[in-house]
Amino acid sequence: xxxxxxxxxxxxxxxxxxxxxxxxxxxxxxxxxxxxxxxxxxxxxxxxxxxxxxxxxxxxxxxxxxxxxxxxxxxxxxxxxxxxxxxxxxxxxxxxxxxxxxxxxxxxxxxxxxxxxxxxxxxxxxxxxxxxxxxxxxxxxxxxxxxxxxxxxxxxxxxxxxxxxxxxxxxxxxxxxxxxxxxxxxxxxxxxxxxxxxxxxxxxxxxxxxxxxxxxxxxxxxxxxxxxxxxxxxxxxxxxxxxxxxxxxxxxxxxxxxxxxxxxxxxxxxxxxxxxxxxxxxxxxxxxxxxxxxxxxxxxxxxxxxxxxxxxxxxxxxxxxxxxxxxxxxxxxxxxxxxxxxxxxxxxxxxxxxxxxxxxxxxxxxxxxxxxxxxxxx
Length: 378
Description:
The structure is a single chain. The protein has helices at residues 2-10, 19-31, 90-106, 131-136, 196-213, 252-272, 292-306, 324-330, 359-377; strands at residues 37-39, 42-49, 58-63, 115-120, 147-158, 162-164, 167-170, 172-181, 185-186, 221-230, 236-237, 240-249, 276-282, 288-290, 311-313, 333-341. By secondary structure, the chain is an alpha/beta fold. It folds into 2 domains: 2-169 and 287-377, 3-Layer(aba) Sandwich (Aminopeptidase); 172-282, Alpha-Beta Plaits (2-Layer Sandwich). An 8-stranded mixed sheet has the order 1-2-4-3-5-16-6-15, sandwiched between helices. Strands 10-12-8-13 form a 4-stranded antiparallel sheet, covered by helices on one side. The protein is elongated and about 80 Å long.
C-alpha cells in the first residue's frame, strides 16, 4: 500500500485527467490477479471478486483526482507536478482500496457474495463529478450491487478512529456566479459612475442575511463568496465585478428556496444602487444520506473489528459535499470518515502541507474489509 500510494502521490492528476492514475490502478489490480474493466472516454476502473457467490454484492469506492495545489510537505515522494497535489487524501483512498482488494482476493473463498471495486474519477469537480457517468456506465450493475460503502480521510478525528452517522451526513453543494454591471470611470469622480465594486460589496454582505433572517436557524444553510474579480487599476472604477461562491444546504426544499431568494436579493440590491446583476446558479452534488440499516450493520462490524473506542458517532450533517451521495441515491449504504490526526496535531484537507500518517492505509483497508464482511453477513 505504501508503494502504491507513493507512486500515485508523485503523479497527481486533476479531475477528468487521471490517465496515469488509471494506468497505475489497472496495473495494481492485474498484479493482484483481478481483471480490471476500463471505459472508453472515461477514467474510471472497476473490478469484481467472487462472482459465483449468491450473497449480497457490496461495492467499495475510491476517488482518483487531485487538487490544483502546489505541495509543501517535503515528503520524499512529493508531487512532481507544480500546481497539482493529492491534498484531499485520494491517494490514500486508492491505496487502501487496493489493500482491501488484496486481502479480499486472498480470502475470496470466504466471501458470501460478490464484491465490486470502484475507482472513480473527478470527485473534486463539484458540479458534474465522476459518480453520475460511472453509474451510467453500469458501476452498480454487472453484478447488481446491493450495498455501497465509501470512506474519506478526515482531519479533526484521531488517527485510526472511524466517524459515522445515520441519515443526512453531508450537505448539498451548489455554485453561483454573479456579474455586477455598473458604469465605470475615474475613481476621483465616483458620482459620475455606478460603482460596481461598491455594489458587489453590498451584494456580498446582503447574501448573509439570507442565512440569518430568511432561513430557520435549525435548518443548516451556508452561503460563502470565494472569488471576487474586478478592476484593472487602483484609480479606475470598473464596469463589472464578478463574484463566485457556494451554497450549502441539507433539505431539498431549503435548497430550492435559497436559490430563488439569492437570485431575487442580488437583482434587487444591484437595482437599488443603479446597477444590474445576473446570476448563474449551478446545481452540484446532492445531500449525502447514509442508510440507517446499512450504517448500523457496518458500525457493528467495525466495532467488532476495531473496538468500540475506535468508533465515534459524528454530529451531522457537516457542510462539505461528496458525489458519493449519488450512489446512495441508488443503493443503500454508508459513507465513513477515517481519522488521521496523531496526538497534538490537527490535519487540514486541501492544504499544501496535508500529509496523513501512513498507518491510515492499514486502518482504511481494514475498515473496507470489515464493512464487506458485515454487510454480507447481515
